[in-house]
Amino acid sequence: MRLLTFNALFTGDVRPRLRALGHVLRESDVDIVCLQEVMYRAHVRLLRQGFAHMAYAGSVVLKGGLVLLSRRPVTRWRFVRFPLAGPLRPEFLMRKGALIAEIGDLVVVNTHLSANRDDDWSPGNRYTVVERAELDVVARLLADVDLERPVVVTGDLNLPRGSAALEEFRVRAGLTDAMAGDARPTCRPTPQWPHPPAFDHVLTRGVTARADLILQDRMALAGGRSGYLSDHYGVLAEIRPGSDSKPWNP
């Protein structure tokens, strides 16, 4: 099974970029797509061709900006909102949270944590405290999942790979980082931010996963233009049953 996580960026030339992304996804062999920052239900129509099954919450504005697309049936799903905490910020309008879906035996959690506007991920930072509380919500969701079921937690976690808060969550939840040791950024470097961290992650339990970065290059957009699909890269993971786990139905 192939799973993609991608922050689609809700500002700028949104519709042309989403239309181009939808074409890429339709022609791909990706089974499950976990998207962040898809803010409007109308935009899902630009992405869904080729995917018979979906999960998202919200009639006009999507809760958390989260969308899950799947070529395989989604048997159950729900959205759990994070508590509003920390400094007052426009980000509250996104109603961030976690989208948890069951696809066969596989449980997928698509999420987007609060941004750290201080770029300081030390334990005492005011935004790190917020992110820890959000990860606690995800950890409690996972605690209710049968340990024999395979799990993927993915999305824009807004925490660098190896940060203390992310590592504590990963260990607590029994998750493995599919890109452990990979120092490449998952955000596009800019002159203002030449060395961004890896914010986009695929964390697994009960399966093995290999992951790599995709959607890094400029692409053709409508009107003969070209551009990047987002300020993030995509992370594509190939997921297989673990050698010490029982067979599972994908």
Describe the structure.
The mean pLDDT is 95. The chain has a single domain, classed as Deoxyribonuclease I, Chain A (4-Layer Sandwich), CATH 3.60.10. The protein has four helices and 14 strands. A six-stranded mixed β-sheet has the order 3-4-2-1-14-11, with no helix packed on it. α1 links the parallel β1 and β2 (32-36). α3 (126-143) runs parallel beside α4. With 250 residues, it is α+β, with helices and mostly antiparallel strands. It is 18% helix and 29% strand. It is globular, with a radius of gyration of 17 Å.
Given the helix and strand composition, which structural class is it? alpha+beta
Number of helices: 4
Secondary-structure element pattern, one letter each: EHEHEEEEEHEHEEEEEE
Helicity, as a percent range: 10-25%
Please tell me the overall pLDDT: 95
How many extended strands?
14
- Through-space gap between termini: 7 Å
CATH architecture descriptor name: 4-Layer Sandwich
Per CATH, the class reads Alpha Beta
CATH fold name: Deoxyribonuclease I, Chain A
Radius of gyration, in Å, reads 17 Å
Percent strand equals 25-35%
